[in-house]
Structures are given as C-alpha cells and as structure tokens.
Design brief:
Largest sheet: 9 strands, mixed
Radius of gyration: 19 Å
Strand content: 25-35%
Structural class: alpha+beta
Order of helices and strands: EEHEEEHHEEHEHEEEEHEHEEEHE
Number of strands: 17
Helix content: 25-40%
Distance between the termini: 27 Å
CATH superfamily of the largest domain: D-amino Acid Aminotransferase, subunit A, domain 2
CATH class of the largest domain: Alpha Beta
CATH topology of the largest domain: D-amino Acid Aminotransferase, Chain A, domain 2
Number of helices: 8
Length: 311
C-alpha cells in the first residue's frame, strides 16, 4: 500500500482555488478541524479505463459531501459543479490514469473555541495512487473480521449520515481493536445491538438467496458503493432487503461482504473465527464484483451514468 512518504513532493494539491505542491499543502496547528474534528470529506475512486481515467459516481459523492457540510452549517466557497471541475483538474495536473481522491471541507483559522461559526471554511482536494484497502488478495479470498466491542453512535448524538471526521474517532477504535486482535477489520453494532457497518465500509449479508443490508437508521453511512450494489443486484434478479440484521445472522449467513469506495466489494471469510459459508468469496459476491467491474471496464453499458471521464 502506498504511504504518504512515497508520494513525490511536487504532486499537486488543490487548496482553496489554487494548486500547491504536496509538501506545501499544510495547515496551521490552531486549525479548528484539528482540535474539534470539524471537517467533512469524501473518498472517491478514479479508475483506469479503455477510454482514459474515469471517476466513479462523482456527482453522488459530491452530493453527499455538500449534504455533510450542510448538516454542520458549513458552506463551501465553490459550487458542486466547480468542485467537480477542480477534481478533474487535480487529476489532470498530476497526470494520473487512476487514483484515490480525497476532497475535504473543514473549519480553518478563526476564534478559538468549540463554536466554529466565525472560522473560515476551507476546501482542499488531494489525489494519490492507492491499492487494495483491505490488503492484497482481499477481493478474491476474503478477509477475517471480528464483531467489535465498540458500538456506532446512538441516534441524535451525531449525524451518522454525514461523512464527518469526528465520526471516525469511533472508526479508529473499531479498526485498532480488530488489527491488534489479528483481524483485518471490525464490524460495529448499533446502540440497539443490530449490525451497523465496518469502520469504513457498509455490510451485506446473503441468506436464503436474498441480499440483506442494514437500513440507514442503524447508524449507517449512506454508501455510494452500497447503493451501486443494490442497483446491480436488482439488475441480476437478486432480491434486496433493507432491514435490521441481528448479530447472530452473521454467523449463519451464506455470504457476508463489505462494500465501499476503498474496499469496493470485499468478501468476508471468517467472523469471530467462524467461517462464513465456505470461508471464501461466495457466488453472489462474485457475480456482483463482475457486474461492478464490467461497468468500470466498459464491458457493460454505463446506463446510469456512473462514470465521469476526466479527459
């Protein structure tokens, strides 16, 4: 996996309307977001395709970014259309054929204290080349995970629908616990004990030929890849059921898999050392992976307009 030490210092970052070198894309130590987690962001993939680099579901990602900002009373200085153009320009100026894209809107310098309303609202866009999020071979072989001792936030405490940096303090606890216990990832339950999501992924369960996923009310981020999988499953004639999933369903499922921009469609081989199905990528996950990558590789028509070509 690429680390930030591997990235050339002259890689360009979009910073409030101008491009700066990666090494110069810095913020002040008293930036509000650093102290209070007051930032919202997106993770977006640009794929290498036969027709050049294409961004996957750019408009939907920007809708979620701007909705997240709205929940936290932040108004970016540029429109969604201008932000989309800035993302394309950032990819072009770095000559990337494929990359991971991180736009971030955050509270900058201003009066110090919890109240952020008089602080600046800044927007940066970073791009870099990033491999498999959950490790090499994860898409083919699956990963081993545990049910975390940490739960997702309760309703009306923090907006789970916002992709806010503050929410990822909870994700870090889930991820660190899993890694230190020898697992690739953790699965969090909601405050009522139902399956919620991973530290950075949504979850699907295959049971009796139906595809089950937790509803947004179970403290679930409205994942873009989650929505893609629901659409592709219906195209394939697979029933999709959105409803509460009890923890024990994970242990008797035919298949379980993660979805996310970084994770794509990653099967889960074992949960709490219990094999899921056959303990490897199942047939439903394989069909969905094939349908997903067929759209990206232009082997299937992009009938929903999911691809935004950069050049």
């Amino acid at each position: 996996m690429t680390t930030f030490f591997d990235i050339p210092g002259d890689t360009k970052v979009y910073a409030n309307g101008k491009f700066v070198d990666w090494k110069d894309a810095t913020i002040h130590v008293m930036t509000h977001a650093l102290h209070y987690g007051s930032s919202v962001f997106e993770g977006i993939r640009c794929y290498k395709t036969p027709k050049g680099p294409a961004i996957y579901r750019l408009n939907e990602h920007l809708d979620r970014l701007y909705n997240s900002a709205k929940m936290y009373r932040m108004t970016p200085a540029i429109s969604k259309t201008e932000c989309a153009a800035a993302i394309c320009d950032t990819i072009k100026i770095n000559h990337f054929d494929e990359c991971y894209i991180r736009p971030i809107v955050y509270r900058g310098l201003g009066p110090f204290g919890v109240n952020p309303l008089d602080n600046s609202v800044d927007l940066h866009i970073c791009c870099w080349q990033w491999g498999s999020y959950l490790g090499e071979g994860a898409l083919e072989c699956g990963v081993d995970v545990q049910v975390s001792s940490w739960h997702r936030m309760a309703p009306n405490t923090m907006p789970a629908l916002a992709k806010c940096a503050a929410n990822y303090a909870n994700s870090q606890l889930i991820k660190m616990e899993a890694v230190l216990n020898g697992y690739s990832e953790g699965i969090a339950l909601d405050v009522h004990g139902y399956v919620s999501e991973g530290s950075g992924e949504n979850i699907f369960v295959v049971r009796n030929e139906a595809l089950l996923t937790a509803p947004l009310g179970n403290s679930v981020l409205p994942g873009i890849t989650r929505d893609s999988v629901c659409c592709l499953a219906r195209d394939l004639g697979i029933e999709v059921v959105e409803g509460p999933i009890p923890r024990e369903m994970l242990y008797i499922a035919d298949e379980v898999f993660f979805t996310g921009t970084a994770a794509e469609i990653t099967p889960i081989a074992h949960i709490d050392k219990i094999p899921v199905g056959t303990g490897k990528c199942g047939p439903v996950a394989k069909r969905l992976q094939e349908a997903f990558f067929n759209v990206i590789n232009l082997k299937s028509p992009d009938k929903r307009g999911w691809l935004t070509f950069v050049k």
